[in-house]
Structure prediction request, 669 residues.
Amino acid sequence: MFNKILIANRGEIACRIIDTAHRMGIQCVAVYSEADRNARHVALADEAFLLGPAPSKDSYLKSDLILQIAKQSGAQAIHPGYGFLSENADFARACESNNIEFIGPPASAIDSMGSKSAAKSIMESANVPLVPGYHGDDQSRELIKNEANRCGYPVLLKAVAGGGGKGMRVVWQESEFDEAFNAARREGESSFGNGDLLVEKYLTKPRHVELQVFADKSGHAVYLADRDCSVQRRHQKVIEEAPAPDIPEDIRCAMGQAAIQAARAINYVGAGTVEFLYDEDGSFYFMEMNTRLQVEHPVSELITRQDLVEWQLRVAAGEDLPLAQEQIQVEGHAIEVRVYAEDPDNDFLPATGTLKYLRTPTENRHVRVDTGVIEGDEVSIYYDPMIAKLIVWDESRDQALSRMSSALKDYQICGLTTNLNFLSNLVQAPAFKAFDVDTGFIEKNQNVLFGEADHNQHQSIALAACYLTLDKKRRSSNPQDPTSPFNQLNNWRLNSSCAHPYELVHGDNSYQVNVLELANGFEITLNNTTYEVKGKLEAEQLTATLNGHQFSVSVFQDGQELTLFQDGHTFTCQRHVEMFGEHEDDTAGSLCAPMNGTVVAILKEPGSKVEAGEGLIVIEAMKMEQTIAAPYEGTVTELFYQPGDLVNEGSELLALTPVSENNSADGDA
Ligand code: ADP
Prediction:
């Protein structure tokens, strides 16, 4: 076995490989780009080397530099992960000629599967079933059109060098052929430098079913069950499960055998995936073979209780496969979702930003999180915006689905747009639960998958107001002086009523909310609805009862924005701070923190009467002190922060009751 390997990748897959390697006592060398200096994979590795600037071509694709680092660091093998150099036959060959083991198949096998048309020819000779179509060398438009007509419409045009769903066009009728042909050819040329096309019968309700295969250098080959990856957006996988549901046992075995034939046909070694289209009538057709470890390999690991990275390392080191076919047992059901920084409501547009707040479900025998990021990390424009893979296992598909729903509730992210709400909707969609699934699933079930769930906005707004009030009260308590009246969480206030007005905005709706303190809780009123509320705030966790209905909500506050995580759904609202209406104007300043900082001094204690312009509180931010002055004449009635407290930009710092209200309050007292 190797003592040291280099991992030519980043993110979750680099971390996942390091985990297994360390468990096997193998040292890991990481490589990283300038954008990844503080990345999790770098921190986990035993050594790490800088490759260059953020763009992949200047870093993770620099094969010569990576080989040089492998030699310099004494790594005996390179694990390419997936993506980047993993299916680059030249890189595999360069490793070979430098006496470094490439943890993957031989270069010749990568070459054979590199072109979709060449792969189909090889599979045809190996008697692996193919979708009817044409994949020959003659690339004239007339010939390909004739072949399309012969297949019968609809047909699919594919760039032979394509991947990742690019370079594909569905043609529904002959009149659309020319335009689709030109578009697929252009996309093939621009994305893969090769405009050659193949044509296939387009199956209208297929499933994507794939087989995990493994082969060793002594010629043994096995398959580790199958996976269903039919739920796709833009021909890319969103959710994967194993074993593939609803496949008769004899067909399952036939697919396994076909996958092994496919692997043998190209003298395969290592981990590979043979992808099939599975038609409604139980027929299946070879689509392509991926010559690497797949993103979705964990679902196969969980149902077979094997570590596929360990298998890869053993096979690469020359050992035989750990198990024979008859020793591979399948147990239970596993499901994986890909948590992405993207906007499902905007055509799954990739999103970027900082993971300002990140909570993940607790990992155990049923729940696994594969990730390469921690709170505070940035999802940049440079790499795939996948944040993590969330994988669950249980004895049945139904139980696994309910595990997934709960785990998704515990996955909480703020700071960028994610597909978490969409994934929650997806695993709860009746058609998904009933496995009424084919590759058109997302399109067919749009009405239940997109947009905000049917959510009670009033309740969420009331919870947000409850949080703001409790947080304010927590801030106003002075830990240094337990006897201080300002530390008592009762409704005692100097010269002020016990009402807390807020304006909260959610989407296009703006809510005027009033929180009134009662002896034993709050009364929260918004839009003519009144809630009797009792609430408790512990760190970021709010437990509140609204009219007898108890809620448990995590809250993240970022400036004026509040995010509530409640039962698998994320609710965001903005606080509109204009508490002092006519008293406040642009020149008079504000009682809110101008930026994130630390409170360094309190200049006026509660009860102090102040003139407009007098200093109230001092904040230090970015090594500069800033005094917050009274925007109008009044009385300081409450302090929400103490010296040493951190404040977020936009947080209200203290309550200053204007002089006119003082008078009436004095009158009441
Ligand atoms: P890529 O290499 O770009 O990922 P694939 O050939 O693997 O392309 O196809 C990606 C997806 O496109 C499949 O998972 C399937 O959903 C769909 N697809 C591919 N070929 C066909 C076909 N002949 N009929 C219907 N759908 C297809």
Observations:
- The chain has six domains: 4-103, 107-131+208-331, 132-201, 338-451, 454-478+486-575, 591-668.
- Residues 131, 156, 162-166, 200, 202-203, 206, 208, 232, 235, 275, 277, 287-288, 439 surround adenosine-5'-diphosphate (CB under 6 Å).
- Confidence is low (pLDDT under 50) at residues 481-497, 579-589, 662-669.
